[in-house]
Amino acid sequence: MNFLDPHHPFFKPLWVRVLTVLVPLVWAGVELYSGEAGWAIISFALAFYAALQLFWVFYKKPGKDKGETP
Fold this sequence. Notes:
Layout: H1 14-33, H2 37-57
Helix pairs in contact: 1-2
Transmembrane segments: 14-33, 39-59
Keywords: Membrane, Transmembrane, Transmembrane helix
Protein name: DUF3329 domain-containing protein
């Protein structure tokens, strides 16, 4: 089980995946604006992880990334 399962049916619509990445990015901007660089880095890292999971791993088929042959 992943922290963020990209193959869950909830993440099938594109707008849900985009919003899941944008919310932590906006929050990182809020934290930077208020002068809290540490929390901004954490929020940015969460957005980066969500983007990797929802836009990179999402398009891979489950089981194909482990070197299995069809």
